[in-house]
Specification:
By secondary structure, this protein is of the alpha/beta class. It folds into two domains: about 15-115, 3-Layer(aba) Sandwich (Rossmann fold); about 130-220, Vaccinia Virus protein VP39 (Rossmann fold), CATH 3.40.50.150. It is built from ten helices and seven strands. A seven-stranded mixed sheet has the order 3-2-1-4-5-7-6, with helices on both faces. Bound molecules: S-adenosylmethionine. S-adenosylmethionine binds near residues 10, 125, 200 and 203.
Length: about 220
């Protein structure tokens, strides 16, 4: 993949920000993720670090960061509106353990060279259900290799979707990869999220339209 078609996993045009969202967006400089944070290996050996890719309006990462002040949370989101919504929540609650990368997650992953994450979450990525759009899906062979590079040994990767096609696609790509173990114990395992999962806004919207969510849980082996 070249750097031009990496951006194609992001869907559609963005609506302009409201006045309040514009104000909240100004806090980005305060909570912006800085790659130098992960240059120090002591830092990621001593701290538990969690990454959420495509956090939407940030409900999950916000609740996690608020309830676990000793962990570090890094959230990636392309859309300004979502970034502004999360920034407002962080600022209102004065959280000190959360950083935002505003931009394309592929670019973020490309820049990281260390296996520093205890968990990576990809909740309800844009499904791109049409066959001709498969290349736009976030999960690709190359992305799995990159995720392997940045997750700590025995670290977890959680992926969910309410698009069965996306789930099958993801499983077939992980089947071709020997670096992760699919943590499924029962046949119905993919109907259950990991323990402590809060649920996302996109998921709730889908449930109202009778779209059933599926959850894949992987562990990085070595
Ligand atoms: C369907 S929404 C789900 C949002 C959230 N995870 C949830 O469950 O409510 C997918 C989100 O991923 C973001 N996204 C998609 N591709 C991305 C990329 N390459 N880099 C950063 N964000 C991305 C989109 O902007 C969108 O907010």
């Amino acid at each position: 993949m070249n750097s031009n078609n990496k951006l194609i996993s992001v869907k559609g045009r963005e609506r302009p920000l409201s006045k309040k969202q514009k104000q909240a967006f100004l806090f980005l400089s305060k909570y912006k993720f800085n790659f130098s944070l992960l240059k120090d290996s002591d830092y990621y050996k001593k701290n538990k670090i969690f990454l959420e890719i495509g956090f939407g309006s940030g409900e999950i990462i916000f609740k996690e960061a608020k309830n676990n002040p000793n962990n570090i949370y890094i959230g990636i989101e392309y859309y300004r509106r979502g970034v502004a919504q999360l920034l407002k929540k962080i600022e209102d609650h004065n959280l000190k353990n959360i950083y935002i990368f505003h931009g394309d997650a592929h670019k973020f992953l490309e820049k990281l060279v260390v296996n520093c994450f205890d968990e990576v979450w990809l909740f309800f990525p844009d499904p791109w259900p049409k066959k001709r759009h498969e290349k736009r899906r976030f999960i690709q062979k190359e992305t799995i290799n990159k995720l392997n590079d940045v997750i700590k040994t025995k670290g977890k990767l959680y992926i969910s979707s309410d698009d069965k096609g996306y789930i099958s696609w993801t499983l077939s790509l992980f089947n071709q990869n020997d670096k992760f173990e699919w943590l499924a114990e029962l046949q119905t395992d993919w109907e259950r999220p990991h323990d402590g999962y809060y649920g996302s806004r996109y998921e709730e919207k889908g449930k109202k339209k009778n779209r059933k969510p599926y959850f894949l849980k992987f562990k990085k082996l070595n």
